[in-house]
Design brief:
With 324 residues, this protein is an alpha/beta fold. The chain is built from eleven helices and 15 strands.
Length: 324
């Protein structure tokens, strides 16, 4: 579709063009560029609209690709609509060559896929190579996209689903078994879900911890994804303190990582506890883990460079199809 001279990609087009392996590679490149570049990236602006309702503005540049742009997005968490997209809006991509709009892409579909792909890229860089048991805390759209993405980076053999609602957890268990052909199990017991996990992804709208540090076994890798602003926390201070803590963006983590902020306020950690950015790991500046028994943690706040890279990938694939 064409919008005023710029290509427009709706949700169906984004899902068709933004394949998981390609998006994982795009996000890897973007996060490496973020950590490598000296360019200052503005922090996102979050405007609360009501309980569980936010409006966000995320501007940024991707200088190595000659791109800049922004994501405008509403985030509405509706507990009565499990599995629905919580993010709605647009990603607008500009071309540095002439300042023109290159494309506009549906932000809900981009966010759904690129968030999971960022977790997959971090997992690939930080989780043990022999990780086989994946635990998903949450039953919404991100739970499904994380299951799809994580299977591209580790030889997952078993999937465990945790949810507050036994019915919703069971529905996701059944979907996961059909989608992947793997053994799947669901529970409302968080401790049981975490017990044997090699990789844990928290993708909830929880206001208070649903994953405790004492439940996490040595050697586990954790992706903390659900909380993207100060206030709601998905895990307790002990997990933050005992983990090798890596962020997508150090500046963003210091400003908006709720779990880190809570541990810092309690005097358990200080800013030096952030080992680095995932881009530093991808660039081999720092190790993703230092030994097999270490608990590693990737804090995903979501960075606009992930959105710009994903939108650019969608646009490139679409233009390639049109010229072939």
């Amino acid at each position: 579709m064409n919008a005023g001279g710029a290509a427009f990609y709706g949700p169906d087009e984004v899902r068709d063009l933004l394949d998981y392996p390609g998006c994982i590679d795009a996000v890897r490149s973007a996060m490496s560029a973020l950590s490598w570049s000296k360019a200052e990236q503005p922090l996102r602006t979050i405007i609360p609209l009501g309980p569980g309702e936010l409006f966000g503005l995320m501007p940024g540049t991707y200088a190595l690709r000659g791109l800049f742009g922004a994501k405008l997005v509403s985030v509405f968490n509706d507990p009565d609509r499990p599995g629905h997209l919580t993010h709605r809006g647009v990603v607008v991509l500009f071309d540095r060559a002439d300042g023109g709009i290159r494309c506009i892409a549906d932000a809900g579909a981009v966010t759904d896929i690129r968030t999971a792909c960022a977790s997959a890229a971090a997992t690939d860089a930080m989780a043990r190579r022999d990780s086989r048991v994946l635990a998903i805390f949450g039953t919404g759209a991100q739970a499904r996209s994380h299951i799809r993405a994580l299977l591209h980076v580790r030889p997952i053999g078993r999937i465990v689903i945790w949810g507050r609602s036994a019915r919703r957890a069971r529905e996701l268990e059944e979907w996961a078994a059909r989608e992947t052909g793997l053994e799947a199990f669901s529970t409302t017991d968080g401790k049981a879900a975490a017990a044997d996990a090699d990789i844990i992804c928290t993708v909830t709208a929880a206001a208070e911890p649903i994953l405790l540090g004492d439940w996490v076994s040595p050697g586990t890798h954790v992706n903390l994804v659900g909380s993207s602003h100060l206030g709601p926390t998905e895990t307790d201070n002990s997990l933050v303190a005992r983990s090798r803590y890596v962020a997508d963006s150090r500046a963003s983590a210091l400003a908006a990582a709720a779990e880190f902020a809570a541990a810092k306020a309690a005097g358990i950690v200080d800013d030096s506890h952030i080992a680095g950015e995932i881009g530093d790991v991808l660039l081999d500046r720092i190790p993703g883990r230092t030994d097999a028994g270490e608990v590693t943690l990737y804090k995903s706040l979501g960075h606009v460079m992930q959105d710009l890279a994903s939108a650019a990938y969608v646009d490139e694939r679409a233009r390639g199809r049109n010229t072939s």
